[in-house]
Amino acid sequence: MTNYQLNTNSRSALREIIETSFRNVPQDLLNVQLNDQIIGYVTHTIFLAIQKFIDQEEQDINFIHCANQKIIIDAVTPNQLSIELRILAQYLREIHLLTGWRDEEFSFIDEHAHERFRVERTFFRAFGLHSRAIHVNGFTSNQQLWLARRSNTKHIDPSLLDNITAGGISANETLLSCAYRELREEAGISSELTHRLNPITSITVRRGLNDSSLHHETLYTYDLELPLTFQPKNQDQEVSDFILIDYEQALGFVLNEELTVDAGVVTAEFLLRHC
How far apart (Å, rounded) are the C-alpha atoms in residues 148 and 162? Predict the structure, then answer.
């Protein structure tokens, strides 16, 4: 079998997809700071809602402040911050400024790799906080790639194509434990196969969303060579079906934006390495 090779134009297009995946913060968003360090961004609507909530005398919010068109979070203990941010998240949920509640928490990790707080994962986009996710490229020895179609009930990117496994890293999970869990839940991949998992790189993406929130996430990528006879089977109802395509078809899907933005970036990087 002749290996598929990308032409110069295709390589340039894939590189551009990766290079432009980290975009400027929309100018109309307001800063969220941990002491004097900017860690996120919110809309005026969310800022005003939080300001009104904090100003209520009966609210016991001591470490989160609204001043000079920005939200300032005191660098107190992770437990203290988590308690107050959970209160804010529930409030935003009650007034319908936080949608798609997952009952799952993410950890905010600072530049020193310390966890500073944890809070409901949907709060991260509303506050433009940096989150983490894993993406696995499931491929075969005959230059084919498995893609998963997201369920039409998914709150984010319903029915779009995704990598064979992709998911956010919850609080208390490591990169590998998240990858193993997602491989099992989303594609029914056994521990016998997950031991083939090969860590590749990380890609940090950032972009404004249609609801004016900010998606800022580091995607930790893995390759997983699967047997030619393998057939993925979803276990958690988050995937409607899987497709097996060759690398040339994958290129077309990426360029035609048939994958989620994040999966498109990850697949572009995969194709550049393998073709």
Answer: 5
Q: Could you confirm whether domain 30-127 is CATH 3.30.750.160?
A: yes
Which residues have CB under 8 Å from 106's CB, separation 6+?
Answer: 118, 119, 120, 121, 124, 129, 131, 132, 168, 169, 170, 171
CATH 3.30.750.160, the chain: domain bounds: 30-127
CATH number of the domain at 8-24+131-274, please? Answer: 3.90.79.10
Note the pLDDT tens digit of each residue in 219-271: 999 999 999 999 999 988 888 999 999 999 999 999 999 999 999 999 999 99
* In the chain, ranges of CATH 3.90.79.10 domains: 8-24+131-274
Beta bridge mates, 150: 239
pTM score, two decimals?
Answer: 0.95
Q: Say what the pLDDT of residue 158 is.
A: 86
Burial class (CB in 10 A: 0-12, 13-18, 19+), 240: middle
The token duo for 167 is 């998911």
